[in-house]
């Protein structure tokens, strides 16, 4: 492929940035850029505005670690959700995946990663302390540790269980059915939903 | 899939708009939105700015029909390209594809579609008159009609040839190698490049 310039620098820059978006490679970035340019009023301008607005408003929820445009986030402030259950996830993508897959109307806690001594990631780099505080507040009856089925995910789950030793809280995990070594975010919703229904004690 | 709201309206709107981008479905739109939100400074803000700038500056070249941020476009004003050859394409996407595939440094003419009586698209809905004017100006020696290998594309090519009847200009088409019924924009660059080198007379 030649590196000839096929359009002005503003369009080239748009293509370069789009190529960094997960799911779009260099070729599909060009196609996407052209489609946007052709649909300036229906797509390009609204997208630019939506991105600006999201960039200006997105915050990390100080209660649960979710990302949203309000703090506390729309899940934490939703009065229809039950406070008795918290699903603990590594990443916001996992929260989104579980919300889509599940009929449960509960709360979440986003850890922000997993314990990883080799990468220098310890308990204080995650939101584990905030999780323990939420549990200590008293309303929580069950903690579903929906971490990835990886070594780091399981080590993180065990660390959290250690921090909650002596509390009366029920701690569960997702049913086997999640492929070993797999990432939650890539699973189909049926598998996720079934794993959630058949969750087991540790 | 449930239609539960998983985030504030600004993020939902961003996801909805991203899902309209060719190459991104609803699921990859969510993944893309989340990746952008997490990389606010490196991705979300620069993309928003690049889209705003493109939306404000993009124009259709009044000479050749290309889209760019200048009129005449950067291809029409490039002094290193030879004026003797014009490649005629249906769409800007075809121009981009040929530019990537070819070593030729020539000019282009974007028709903006094909003749399609059933859809009410006649010669005046395309840039055929402007093309004839460009040819009449005298510098052009060869017109490569790189229209799609579809019925409408071939009909459009024949109409253009009729309009140029009696001129001395050489009119060629892409070599067979372009799949019958295929769209230029989806071809690999090797095929496109070979088809361009082996172009034939009508
Ligand atoms: Zn929250
Ligand atoms: Zn031009």
Automatic annotation (TrEMBL), chains A, B:
- Supply the name of the protein: Recombination protein RecR
Give residue ranges for domain Toprim.
84-179
Query: Which Gene3D superfamilies has this protein been placed in?
Result: 3.40.1360.10, 6.10.250.240, RecR Domain 1 (1.10.8.420)
Report the sequence similarity comment from the record.
Belongs to the RecR family.
- Name the species this protein comes from: Roseitalea porphyridii
Query: What is the superkingdom listed in this entry's lineage?
Result: Bacteria
Swiss-Prot/TrEMBL GO biological process terms: DNA recombination; DNA repair
Q: Which UniProt keywords apply?
A: DNA damage, DNA recombination, DNA repair, Metal-binding, Zinc, Zinc-finger
Q: Could you tell me what this protein does?
A: May play a role in DNA repair. It seems to be involved in an RecBC-independent recombinational process of DNA repair. It may act with RecF and RecO.
Matching HAMAP family: RecR
Any one GO MF term held by the record is: DNA binding
ZnF (C4-type) spans are: 61-76
């Amino acid at each position: 492929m030649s590196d000839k310039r096929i359009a002005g620098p503003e369009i080239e820059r748009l293509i370069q940035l789009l190529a960094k978006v997960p799911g779009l490679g260099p070729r599909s970035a060009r196609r996407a850029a052209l489609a946007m340019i052709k649909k300036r009023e229906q797509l390009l301008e609204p997208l630019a505005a939506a991105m600006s607005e999201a960039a200006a408003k997105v915050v990390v929820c100080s209660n649960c670690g979710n990302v949203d445009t309000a703090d506390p986030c729309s899940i934490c402030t939703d009065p229809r959700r039950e406070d008795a259950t918290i699903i603990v996830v590594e990443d916001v993508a996992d929260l989104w995946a579980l919300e889509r897959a599940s009929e449960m109307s509960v709360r979440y806690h986003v850890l922000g990663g997993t314990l990883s001594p080799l990468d220098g990631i310890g308990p204080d780099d995650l939101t584990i302390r905030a999780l323990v505080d939420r549990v200590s507040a008293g309303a929580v009856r069950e903690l579903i540790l929906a971490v990835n089925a990886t070594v780091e995910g399981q080590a993180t789950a065990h660390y959290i269980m250690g921090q909650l030793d002596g509390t009366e809280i029920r701690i569960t995990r997702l049913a086997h059915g999640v492929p070993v070594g797999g990432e939650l975010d890539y699973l189909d919703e049926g598998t996720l939903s079934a794993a959630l229904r058949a969750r087991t004690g540790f």
